[in-house]
Amino acid sequence: MIVLGLNVYHGNASAAIVCDGQLVAAAEEERFNRVKYAAGFPASAVRYCLRAAGVTLAEVDHVAVPRDPWAHLAAKARYALRLPRFALDRFRAIVRFAGLREELAHACDVDPATIRARFHRVEHHRAHLASAFFVSPFDQAAVLSADGLGDFASTMWAVGQGHRLDVHGAVEFPHSLGLYYTAITQYLGFWKYGDEYKVMGLAAYGEPAYLDEFRRIVRARGGSGPQAQGGSHARGQGAALLTGRRPFALGLEYFVHHRNGPDMTWRESDRTPVLGRLFSDYLAARLGPARQPGEPLDRRHQDVAATLQARLEEVYFDLLNALHARTGLRALCLAGGVSFNCVANGKIFDRTPFEQVYIQPAAGDAGLAVGAAFYVYHQVLGRPRSFVMDHAYWGPEFSAAAIRQALEDAGLPYRELPEETLCRETAHHIAEGKIVGWFQGRMEWGPRALGNRSIVVDPRRLQMKDVLNRRIKHREPFRPFAPSILEETTGEYFERAHPSPFMILAYPVRPDKRAVIPAPTHVDGTGRLQTVSRETNPRYWRLIKEFERLTGVPVVLNTSFNENEPIVCTPQEAVDCFRRTHMDVLAIGDYLVERTA
Fold first, then answer.
1. Is residue 131 part of a domain?
2. Domain CATH code at residue 108
3. Each residue of 375-407: pLDDT tens digit?
């Protein structure tokens, strides 16, 4: 049984293929067309997935798409009556999806008549829920999806058990924690699609000085207020929060998306997704003038960012505590763009009764391709579960011959080394303060470089953050870098030892270790860590182990292998990035390249 999942005509276009219940391949289109967050149809990702599975399009049994035009139909109809342009946009979307079979055939250069697959429409948030639970290690779990908007809903909660999901409720448009976060991100002068993570980093520099105002911007039934800040699980919220009326609501006077329409667009020239302005003039009147892109960041901007984050956490933990009260379950699965908020995620164990958390590496909209495929396989077809996503390496890999050809085409001198020597010499370079490009195995699935398409440096050197920004990354100075740590040593350096293999949890660094690894320790004393397992990535684990043998520190600073572009996919892209930046060393496959000048 072969199921092809597609996230199409949306940001983070992606494809995934599931064969007999096992994920075989998954990738975002941006890695192939080199457009960040690329929208539209994931033609290259589809072709890659079929090649990786060794099948043709004619052999695919089911195609799953995370878009259901009939979901939340009553709410859509109400908006269509008020906003004729919204009705026209809905009609265009239906027409676009009606041509999906032909576009899929065109991408694979086949006759549409040869496609025998049955096409399925899976509601956006059901696909998110499936992407979290059906690939988790749990047989039973509470599941929450929260993002900007999908199929006219922003939030959905459910219980997963075995190969079934039982949806308990949802929050419909226009009320959305994701759109709330994006609106304030725009107000702070960050307008590019996907810039929310920048503001999350900025928040650590401020104080939540505007909470009274932000509790009007997002209003919660649960009475989330001062007691929620650092409170003891807020267990009193109870299951009632998730029954009857919606658990939270936006103060719509602060926003315009309910008047202007909710959908994203994208530039046809390069498939870059674009969101229009979401915040209103009223918000600017209440908080002060909006920051223009490129303007200096001052204390007010830092405090707004901190308050944005604090209010999100209040409402988020209200939801999670209510979900626990309703289900009584110890395990939690999360999906949707809000689940990328690693700062909030790292506090789940302190602020809720949940004891286990699972978030897959592409928890945002790219992950819908995986979720839609597994939803069809389990929920629609009734097949039992047999797969756990315990690593993120589902993208393309390249042979030694292909890597060697890229090096020779570029005229780079190289040495071929056995793995033990490669890791030992690379660790020496890192310990000497050099910047290393690390390109190995299959490309990561999701937005994080997790040790296969990474730039790696010494975490003990405080200046490495500035060196990386000056020489390669050119990022805002308030954005943190991430530590990769040997999984078995996590509790020695962080105040939590729960595994974080996908870099989606931020934990406090132990006070006595902050001076040991200052470069990836954020200003608030936390680190967005990746725990590295010997079983799931033995070569990256060995590199860090060699670094530990040299320095006594089982941690390296890890950032994505790129320069203002999507993470590199091919050996040629890695070589090009190495040559045009000031990287010192390239460890690519079994080959080591050292810059001599």
1. no
2. 3.30.420
3. 999 999 999 999 999 999 999 999 999 999 999
Beta carbons within 10 angstroms of residue 37's beta carbon: 24
392 lies in a domain? Answer: no
Listed as ranges, residues in the chain with pLDDT below 50 are 226-237
- pLDDT tens, 462-487? 999 999 999 999 999 999 999 999 99
Closest CA to 127 of 394, 389, 370, 386: 370
pLDDT at 4: 98
Question: Hey, which bits of 275-364 come out as E strands?
Answer: 331-335, 356-358
Rounded to the nearest 10 degrees, how much is the dihedral formed by the CA atoms of 506, 510, 512, 515? 0
Which residues, including other chains, have CB under 8 Å from residue 236's CB and lie 6 or more apart?
none
Check whether residue 99 and residue 142 sit in a common domain: no
What is the strand order of the sheet 62-65 is part of?
A: 22-28, 14-19, 2-7, 62-65, 118-121
Q: Are residues 331 and 405 in the same domain?
A: no
What does the DSSP 8-state code read for residue 444?
B
pLDDT of residue 225: 54
Domain span at 234 = 137-267+274-359
CA–CA separation, 553 and 3 (whole Å): 44
Q: What's CA 519's distance to the chain center, in Å? A: 23
**Domain end call among 92, 126, 160:** 126
Q: Do residues 71 and 145 share a domain?
A: no
Examine the fold and report which residue of 333, 359, 385 is the final residue of a domain before the chain moves on: 359
Rounded CA gap, 218 and 254, in Å? 10
Number of neighbours of residue 252 by Cβ within 10 angstroms = 15
Strand-strand pairing, 140-150 and 331-335: parallel
